Model the fold of this input.
Amino acid sequence: MATIKENYTNIITDSEVTQNSSLFENDKEILGFEKETTNNNKPDRKVKGLWVKFLDNSIRKNIELQYYNKQLLNKKGEVTSTENKFANDTLTALNYIQTNDADKNLLSGTNTVKDIYTNTKSKIFIINVSENEKGSSYQNKNKTLIFDSINGKRMTNERNEIIYQSPALELGHELGHTFRDIFNNVKPMTEANFNLAKFIEEEQLVVEKFEWPMAVKLKEGVRKNYITNDLKPYIKMESVISNEPLEE
Ligand SMILES: [Zn+2]
Done:
């Protein structure tokens, strides 16, 4: 992975993200894991917010927990914890992609994750990808983000370098689509009105304005173009926030 790290330097030098002086501070430190000290700061109940939905096998029931201020809350708005791996991985991923304002997008200049959990008028759900599928996606129709917390991406960028991205970074990309739906009213394309050029144009916007600055700040594999060469697109990573593959 050393060569990929070296390559970042070249890509970053000519980027506007370098103007952010905090970019390379706290290299190893994941700021997102710090507990907020303002726990009395409860979500506005009119805001529907960002929720993690999962099946709790011990009670055979679907559980919904709200993501707010780097923590999970129960339906009463109380800080809570869970044994569920998917829910905890999602919490870890959401906190990680806010490290050093990595989720500050280049479209509105605001923090994508916070915008979503503090300003949505409909509930946004993050659910686990089904067992026989790989990869994350956002479904505008149901306001649901399907999250693959196990597999990250392996692809080549516009410089033909092999790059790797964590599952968390792909979650960040999909939250870009969520943002576009919620705040920019970008309507979903149905199969009937599918337009490839428009599809790619929207993907390119999400890559440039959401994924790219996030990848740079998190020091993961960066691409500037959506059109990349997927060598083996989904690959198991060491953890939800790791872009080190467990296998090749
Ligand atoms: Zn996309």
